[in-house]
Amino acid sequence: MNRFFVDRKNIIGDQKLIVLDDPEDVKHIIKVLRLAEEDILEVCDGEKGIYIGEILSLSKTKIELKILEKFLSDTEPPIEVTLFQGMPKGTKMEIIIQKCTELGIHSIIPLNTARTVVQLKDKKDEVKKIERWQKIAEEAAKQSKRGVIPQIGLPINFSQLRDVLPLFDLVIIPYEKETVLGLKTLLKEQMSPKKIAVIIGPEGGFEETEIEIAKELGSMSISLGKRILRTETAGFVVLSTLMYELGDLGGI
């Protein structure tokens, strides 16, 4: 069954009614799926609430559904992982967002570091990029049956990590020069962290001073093995391992 996301304001509980008015969703339902009155859709409110609805009416601007059933999503992992991703070149960020959404990421924040090559031109360009990335996260959330849409934050500078890292139970920063602590060992030593931050560098990696600053802020510098991983691969590896060890990847 196809899943669509709506804002909570579009769910009129006392009338048992849902209004889908996103132009792309309306077009997709009518033109691509070719659904009609009395067909059934699955709708998510982005807060783990799932609704099964029967189409009452369709127009070019909106689709109205009668709520038949409501329940809570069981597809969200028990941990919240935020990825601070060093800004990569090309379309790599889009791939990172798509795949991390499928794996259960909670949020992704683009990170400017000393070796970041990609720079968004101005505030307008920044907002445009975030809107596109957020849409990619939404589409991936639909496809993977997520109960929430991961939020893509505005880019921050490395120095701003001082303000946000204290909010997490565990902060992980993979570093190719780390030779002592591995991710496997680290997770064995942790007492069930619920809010986890993962910091990934850009193509050129981190400068040593950035690693030292991260450690001062409580980050755990880890090795991901003897091979050097690309920036678009490292986040997947850490997130997959976290979801397997602490989340729900792999089932019961």
Automatic annotation (TrEMBL):
A Pfam match: Methyltrans_RNA
The Ribosomal RNA small subunit methyltransferase E PUA-like domain, residue ranges: 20-68
Top-level taxon: Bacteria
EC number from the UniProt entry: 2.1.1.193
Annotated ranges, domain Ribosomal RNA small subunit methyltransferase E methyltransferase: 76-242
Gene Ontology terms: biological process: rRNA base methylation
Catalytic reaction annotation: uridine(1498) in 16S rRNA + S-adenosyl-L-methionine = N(3)-methyluridine(1498) in 16S rRNA + S-adenosyl-L-homocysteine + H(+)
Tagged with keyword Cytoplasm: yes
Keyword Glycoprotein attached: no
Keyword terms of this UniProt record: Cytoplasm, Methyltransferase, rRNA processing, S-adenosyl-L-methionine, Transferase
GO molecular function: rRNA (uridine-N3-)-methyltransferase activity
SUPFAM superfamilies given in the database record: alpha/beta knot, PUA domain-like
Subcellular location: Cytoplasm
A Gene Ontology cellular-component term: cytoplasm
Function (record text): Specifically methylates the N3 position of the uracil ring of uridine 1498 (m3U1498) in 16S rRNA. Acts on the fully assembled 30S ribosomal subunit.
Family statement drawn from the similarity comment of this UniProt entry: Belongs to the RNA methyltransferase RsmE family.
NCBIfam families: PRK11713.1-5, RsmE family RNA methyltransferase
Name listed for the protein in its UniProt record: Ribosomal RNA small subunit methyltransferase E
